[in-house]
Design brief:
The chain contains three helices and six strands, in the order H-E-E-E-E-H-E-E-H. The protein is α+β, with helices and mostly antiparallel strands and about 110 residues long. The strands form two sheets. Strands 2-1-5-6 form a four-stranded antiparallel beta sheet. A two-stranded antiparallel sheet has the order 3-4. The N and C termini lie far apart (about 35 Å).
């Protein structure tokens, strides 16, 4: 497993929007904006069940994530890897609230 440098960690830990690339069934890329966090050295994010990115990751776990600094969009980090685990239920509900507090300053409002 590759280690992220301090600059990459700072971008991930700040409320910078990330973009997740997944692989469509026909092999073409699909990109979605996401909120991300670092937990135990892993990059985490949240999506609703049934969304295209969730279906793509269940079929093919290869992903790429690009995170640009919100103050300088040319200062960015790109991470390529595989989905290690998908979690749902109460753990996922707590995580979306954590992400909403990071990005919006409040619990998940939707």
């Amino acid at each position: 497993m590759a280690r992220l440098d301090d600059s990459a960690r700072e971008k991930i830990e700040a409320p910078n929007l990330a973009f997740l690339a997944t692989v469509m069934e026909d092999g073409s890329p699909q990109v979605s904006p996401i909120w991300i966090a670092m937990e135990d050295g892993n990059i985490t994010f949240n999506t609703a069940l049934g969304r295209l990115k969730e279906k793509n990751m269940r079929r093919d776990p290869r992903v790429a994530i690009s995170v640009a600094d919100r103050d300088d969009i040319y200062d960015r980090v790109t991470i390529r890897g595989r989905v290690l685990e998908m979690i749902d239920g109460e753990v996922a509900e707590h995580q979306i609230d954590d992400l909403a507090r990071k990005y919006l300053g409040t619990d998940y409002p939707w």
